[in-house]
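User: Quick sanity check before I run a bigger batch. Here is a single chain. Can you write out its predicted 3D structure?
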Amino acid sequence: MSRDGALGAFDEARDRFLTAFDRVPDAALGFLKPGDDYAIGGLLAHVTWGMSHYTDVLDTVAAGGFGELRDRIDPDESERSAEEARRGIDGAARGPALEAMRAAHDRFVRRCRDLAEADFERTAPVFYGDATEPHPTSAAVVAGWLTEHYDEHVPHVGELLTAYEAAGVD
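Assistant: Done. Predicted structure follows.
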């Protein structure tokens, strides 16, 4: 897929996510369904963290000339992010959380557009976590991951909202 096509699909996935999220009342933003890892409002922090992290990976890949990279996530950062996603937000934090998500989205798009067209699909061997084999990673691959990530959480928003409504929480 071309860079424009991939980034267009990424924008469309964001729009689908935001449309689903628009249905969530402020009172539901802190709801954590038993057994789930994400409060409804915590999904904003979750998708934002993913975009920020993978943009950082692409920054490092490009700065390193597409050479081998070990992507290590700070355990404290990972736990902070997971806790933020479980905790959710309140209505006052909705606007800033949406703005942070939009900023992370736009930063990823700029990172992709800053690459030469030919480098959009250029891969680098990236070792994620404790992997012993590298994963060929490119801006095109990451754009696909992040598009799928948005789309994964579109029905998730609906499921969590249905559980919130069924729980009769105020």
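The helical segments are 3-22, 42-63, 75-87, 91-114, 139-167.

User: Great, the batch can go ahead then.
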